[in-house]
Design goal:
The protein is mainly beta and about 260 residues long. Helix content is about 10%, strand content about 35%. Strands 9-8-7-6-10 form a five-stranded antiparallel sheet, with no helix packed on it. It has a five-stranded antiparallel sheet with strand order 14-13-12-11-15, with no helix packed on it. A five-stranded antiparallel sheet has the order 19-18-17-16-20, with no helix packed on it. β12 and β13 form a beta hairpin. The longest helix has 18 residues. It is globular, with a radius of gyration of 21 Å. The protein starts with a helix and ends with a strand.
């Protein structure tokens, strides 16, 4: 009898957990922000992960990978009837890129959102880029990227933000509103921070070979690195750590100070 009672209690707890409603927008950030999108315009968002888990799981703990979509309509106050506007990054039309520019785009013969550096601007509306991941570069579609500006805070900008224990961590800006920043952080999870606790990371090095710098370990910045090589065409910097080991970093994962 006792075993049966325990089983029924465990079953009740399991059914209650499965039926539990989770917050559909759990971040300390406005759900709805002004968004200017027109039919056919590209935008980036985490539609797949959000739609699969919304109301069913704690979204702050879910992997929410950003992919590219073409806008159709606003429906029930949501982008394409699914996404809160604040979670979407519109890609402006007719942007022109120059060699050396850092862009926010997506891996166009692959999958998700990423940064890239322009290596050929002979066709500025469809530049050829090297992705800052290890994926081989390619020519981008028109209207499929944001040209990032050095030192400018905005969607797509790489930033350092104060996380747990006031440690500086890395992320990419999704949106800014009401003095807060919605951030695409480590592990493809969304975070928030106060705007005053964020710093835009430089897209152009303000350091040279031999300089002592800060760089990233996992997603947090640490001191004790030395610049060994700067490769602007790849958007990479090689640093040597305090144990003499070389580490290849993205160009904005290395800073003089924070």
């Amino acid at each position: 009898m006792k075993k049966a009672s325990i089983f029924l209690f465990a079953l009740f707890v399991s059914l209650f957990a499965n039926a539990q409603e989770f917050d559909k927008f759990p971040w300390d950030f406005p759900q709805d922000t002004k968004l200017n999108l027109k039919a056919g315009q590209w935008y980036l968002t985490c539609k797949t992960g959000y739609e699969r888990n919304v109301g069913k799981a704690d979204l702050t703990k879910e992997i929410l990978i950003y992919y590219s979509y073409q806008f159709k309509e606003m429906k029930d106050g949501l982008v394409d009837g699914v996404m809160p506007s604040s979670m979407c990054i519109p890609l402006p039309e007719k942007q022109k890129a120059k060699k050396g520019d850092i862009l926010l785009t997506w891996w166009q013969t692959g999958s998700g959102m990423c940064h890239a550096v322009v290596v050929d601007d002979s066709k500025p509306l469809t530049p050829t880029v090297n992705y800052l991941s290890t994926v081989k570069g390619e020519e981008l579609k028109p209207n499929s990227f944001i040209v990032l500006k050095n030192g400018k805070m905005g969607p797509g900008a790489p930033i350092a933000y104060k996380g747990d224990y006031d440690k500086w961590r890395t992320g990419t800006v999704i949106n800014i509103a009401d003095g807060k920043v919605l951030i695409y952080g480590f592990g493809s999870k969304l975070k928030t921070a106060k705007l005053e606790d964020c710093k835009v990371l430089p897209l152009k090095p303000d350091y040279k070979v031999g300089d002592s710098v800060m760089s990233t370990f996992i997603d947090g910045f640490e001191e004790g690195y030395t610049v060994k090589e700067i490769n602007l065409e790849k958007g990479k910097v090689t640093v040597t750590d305090k144990n003499g080991r070389d580490r290849e970093k993205l160009i904005f994962e290395v800073v003089k100070s924070l």
